[in-house]
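Researcher: Batch entry, complex prediction.
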Amino acid sequence: MGGPREMVLALADDELCIGQNLAWWIAVGPFLEEDLALTSISQDELGHARALYGLLGDDIDALAYGRQPHEYRSAHLTELPCRDWGETLVRHFLYDTAETVRWAALADSSWEALGAVARRALAEERSHLRHASGLLSRLLRTEAGRSQLLPLFDQFTPLACELFELPPDCAADGLVAAGIIARPMSDQRAEWQAAVDDTLAEAGYQPQWPEHADPASAANGRTGLRSPHFAALHAEMVEVLALDPTARW
Amino acid sequence: MSEGRSTAAMEAAPMSTAAMEAAILEAVSTVCDPEYPEITIAQLGILERVSVSDGGSTIRIELVPTMLGCPALDVIATDVSAAARSACMGSDVSVDVVFVADPVWTPDRIAPGARKFMASEYSVAVRSSQSAATCPICGNTSLEHRSDFGPTPCRSVEWCPSCRNPIEVVGRVDLPAAMGAAPISPAAMGAAPISSAFA
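Model: Structure tokens for the complex:
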């Protein structure tokens, strides 16, 4: 199960990092509903991370917090500390659109427990995507929204493509053959790009998609290389544990 | 039996697996939800299964989380474990409380009595696949959706145009619909109605 486990670890690390990053918005959202929305989504993503780590072992805290930085497999997009709400919204849209495609490809997994988690998560994902695309569609009808948000897509899409990369030791072809995932990651990425294109077409915009990922230039969180933002994110996550390793909530 | 064994252990020892499962099920059924301290996890549909194996020494209790990220899960698991142990009356047992992803919890799992109680005591409405959410204050059944995200992950916020109160509704609007086999694509999901809070 080396390949599937590596894949699940990467997906779980994505959820952990973006969940932690979204929690930053607690009490500082631009309006009350948005404050509640981003932090509720944060809770959901952390719950998804927990469920995925639970497939890999019993000590979820050790998996989530106890590894060395090079042992994490998160995509760099999820590690970014979006402190600008527009950046947060664009990343949220790209991420939750991607997640919906990824979960759907796992819903009938031959790894039954993984399939169950995927179906459960997918049921929660609808409200995330409705939130992201609802806000985005409305803001893109305004000139201010277009001028501020559209450039962010070209900033984030290269990073977001990594959401459809798998760790190198995953044997991705084998995952499809074994029925762990229903479709190759490249097919999933194409569906995701088309969905993003559809939404942005409403605003008359075509985002720039990078050509097939170049291993030399692509972000490589999946190989264990952490972005410059990871250290601070991780330090925040383990702040209590670092003070008292026996602390319990 | 040695003289050193407690009376409780002697009583527990001859229990059949089925009787033990029934006793534990009865005990953990009384565990209440931290959010609604008068409503049990059985009434909320969180309690799924109790099984006993290894000749009565291993207990597995399966719970269905309302949401995977519900922050009350640890509290519930701790309470359930304690209730199961007390039902075993001091016997040396291993208790495993697990949250299962399948089946998916929906508001349909909430017992009718608990729904009434949530409406009357907490002013919280429940939307099920069979019935619309009813305003717990005035009984209006035409609530207006405001936001998928409310004070807890499992509650959305709606508005009653009749009595002009904000209403919390258990179950994000489409959780029951998500149970069906409907194909899911990002495009279709993005086209769903969006919250009027952002109008």
